[in-house]
């Protein structure tokens, strides 16, 4: 009777419940460990997640982004080269004021300086859309005006008196005509870049056929660039 009492005390309902929970926890850990070891040679699946598929998805997305980043770099380089070559256009438009070559080069450089800053920012896909183009152009013209007036007032000094520069309002239409040509060039190159990106997205799209999340990302990028092209060409 005494022995029975001791056993019944040691196996109280509380202790029994704790023991069952502990054993269940051990069984779960062992089961998952065995499953992991067993599936290691079959692509490593933990629940619904396919690790190899995930790694491939990350890799494809990375290479796709790298390829498109290179297009952005090429666009910036092309725009800088073509902006630099517009020096002659500015100088030719200023010929009517009978300025010396050094002054002409100085003016051409001053007019192109804000254009270089715009290229560094490189938001042309949105800033040169039909809705924003006039605002963007006005912003560029204001910056060029500041550059021009710095040279204009500086030329009033005695040692520069032989160079007579025109007031801003007289020279503004000339500058605007060159800026219009520059904007057309930038739009053309930006549209070309967007189309190249779309081709890249479509090239990688089959890699995400079974990956709804990344497939959705790529399709949205295609739609976004198609929207850029429509806005730029409007």
Layout of secondary structure:
Elements: H1 2-10, H2 13-39, E1 45-46, E2 49-50, H3 51-84, H4 87-93, H5 101-121, H6 124-127, H7 133-154, H8 168-204, H9 212-232
Antiparallel strand pairs: 1-2
Helix pairs in contact: 3-5, 3-8, 4-5, 5-7, 7-8, 8-9
The strand line-up of the biggest sheet is 1-2
C-alpha Rg, in Å?
34 Å
SSE topology string: HHEEHHHHHHH
Count of individual beta strands: 2
Helix content: over 70%
The number of domains: 2
- How far apart the termini lie comes to 99 Å
User: Which term fits the overall shape?
Assistant: elongated
The largest sheet, given as strand count, sense and whether it forms a barrel, is: 2 strands, antiparallel
Average pLDDT: 81
Q: Give me the number of helical elements.
A: 9
- Proportion of residues in extended strands: under 5%
Low-confidence stretches: 1-9, 36-49
SSE-based structural type = mainly alpha
Task: Please tell me about this protein's structure.
It is elongated and about 100 Å long. Helices cover 78% and strands 2% of the residues. It starts with a helix and ends with a helix. A two-stranded antiparallel sheet has the order 1-2. With 234 residues, it is mainly α. Helix 4 packs across helix 5, helix 7 crosses helix 8 and helix 8 runs antiparallel to helix 9. It has two domains: 41 residues; 182 residues, no CATH class.
